Amino acid sequence: MAGIKEVASRAGLSVATVSRALSGKSNVSSRSRRLAQEAARELGFVPSYHASSLASGRNHNIGLVVPNVQRWYFSSVLEGVSETLLDAGYDLTLYNVGEQPERRNSILTDFLLRKRLDAVIAVALVLSEEEIGQLLAVHRPIVGIGGALRGASTIRIDDEGLAMMATRHLIGLGHTRIAHITGDAGLNRDFRLPQLRQKGFTAALAGAGLEFRQDWHATADFTIQGAYAAGRRLLGASAERPTAVFAASDEMAVGIMLAARDFGLRVPEDLSVVGIDGHELAATFGLTTVSQDPRGQGRLAAATALALLEGAGRDSDGGASDGGPAATAAQDQEYPTEFVIRHSTAVPPDVT
């Protein structure tokens, strides 16, 4: 069987470059990585990840912890993380903690701390300082998506600010009777996303001198079905209907639009609707929304984890301990978003 020297000769690269390329390290050009992979494939060379792990102390495996992989946002993040790690030659271990806290505890105290993973990406989960400290104590980089994690790198969007912007869009069109559908209490357990988006909504109303009406405030479970049921109650129970709705997610915005149809209300002629997320259904329904690109967030999170691992490796080569600054340096990255105006919003009917 061919060895790494033969691969390097075939590719016209140094042994060190081929080793870095085939082990998934980031400090290799895309051209060199392609040449190394092609030469290895032609010669039937398969790198020994067991030997590589022994030499580097790594498993080439990164863990992704999500609350519910069936939801669109989390599955989109998973796609972004997976494709980035695959390109880098890393395996992905998925932990779907669901609604059972004991599962999360076993993951954090057992699987992760037994050093089966090189890094951890936590999506929409609040980790306590004790939990973060446990992970950092065994020199495992942590990357969070969805909110700040003390001592860990994070990728987030400005939920409060974006909700304020979406609500101001409706106010700018002339709407004064604006309802809001948000997440129920259980969904505020982690990064309190519904709470943050509602805070932005109420701040926009207050800034325009508008009243927050409790009868125009509905809660659901961030699904189309849940918002459809809540929307029927919202639009059917109030003596005075709102002319616009800000939904804390695109799926709930779609549910509201379907409920409006049941009452013979046209969107946007009778009811304007705006959401947040950039869900794939938003374009289909012509929904005005804030696109947050969860797949891109996943790619960035994976790239951040790999960069932290590269930094830790360089520090270790240079004589520093595994717990050197590069291994735990925290970065707070606000992910760029796009406000996409479609035909679900218009001036209110009493203005036209």
Q: Tell me about the biggest sheet?
A: 6 strands, parallel
Specify the helix fraction band.
40-55%
Shape: elongated
> Reading side by side through the largest sheet, how are the strands ordered?
2-1-3-4-5-11
| Rg on CA atoms, Å | 24 Å
Distance between the termini: 77 Å
Q: What sequence of helices (H) and strands (E) makes up the elements?
A: HHHHEHEHEHEEHEHEHEHEHEHHEE
Low-confidence stretches: 316-328
Strand composition percent: 15-25%
What structural class results from the helix and strand content? Answer: alpha/beta
Q: If you average the pLDDT, what whole number results?
A: 84
Number of strands: 12
Total count of helical runs of at least 4 residues = 14
